[in-house]
Known about the structure:
Chain A is mainly β. Helices cover 0% and strands 58% of the residues of chain A. Chain A contains no helices and eleven strands. In chain A, the strands form two sheets. In chain A, strands 2, 4, 5, 9, 10 and 11 form a six-stranded mixed β-sheet that branches. Chain A has a five-stranded antiparallel β-sheet with strand order 1-3-8-7-6, with no helix packed on it. Chain A is globular. Chain A starts with a strand and ends with a strand. Chain B is 0% helix and 50% strand. Chain B has strands at residues 5-7, 10-13, 19-24, 31-37, 43-50, 53-57, 65-68, 75-79, 88-95, 105-106, 110-114. In chain B, strand 5 and strand 6 form a beta hairpin. Chain B is mainly β. Classes of the chains: A mainly beta, B mainly beta. Chain A binds chain B through residues 4, 6, 31-32, 36, 41-44, 46, 49, 51, 89, 93-105, and chain B through 3-4, 31, 33, 35, 40-45, 48, 55-56, 58, 91, 98-109.
Amino acid sequence: xxxxxxxxxHLSVREGDSAVIICTYTDPNSYYFFWxxxxxxxGLQLLMKVFSSTEINxxxxxxVLLNKKDKQxxxxxxxxxxxxxxxxxxxxxxxxxxxxxxxxxxxLIIQP
Amino acid sequence: xxxxxxxxxxxxxxxxxxxxxxxxxxxxHLYFYWYKQILGQQMEFLVNFYNGxxxxxxxxFKDQFSVERPDGSYFTLKIxxxxxxxxxxxxxxxxxxxxxxxxxxxxHGTKLSVL
Lengths: 112, 115
């Protein structure tokens, strides 16, 4: 079945710097990709949903890149601020499957 | 925005006892899910539920597990009897359409500690 590797498990960057989190998946039939953010004591908040047809997706303060050739999904936070401190999860689903396969998460800490 | 509520946030029980985890999904959602996250590991799919039935379950959904949503009330996960390896955070989620590209709304999780 699908396997998703997420790295790094922990990331600390200074305020204003960029941060990159990468997920690598195995199933070539993976079609939908998600990034979730989890703040302490809160549920998972959807950051972005990406379809396999779109390689670059821009959100507020971040960009999601999808490299289907290398089966890699990345979340790039630009100009990180303290509110970005959280655990970030990538998740992948395949067409016709009503379930998500998650990465292990990345604990991101933004230092002032 | 829409919220999924999970009650309680933390439950501590003795091995062998029964436990019921409660989830109050988004009001107009039709598809419901449980995911399990053992400390330090990734969140893993347990089961999805629609129209009063389990649609799909993973190998983690042991015979001791059951789910139901009687009369549109809480969506529950019952474990009877519990085992030490059931200690984890259990996340409930719901969605409107149940398709693979559907956005899931997650609860905060219930941390289950089996002693």
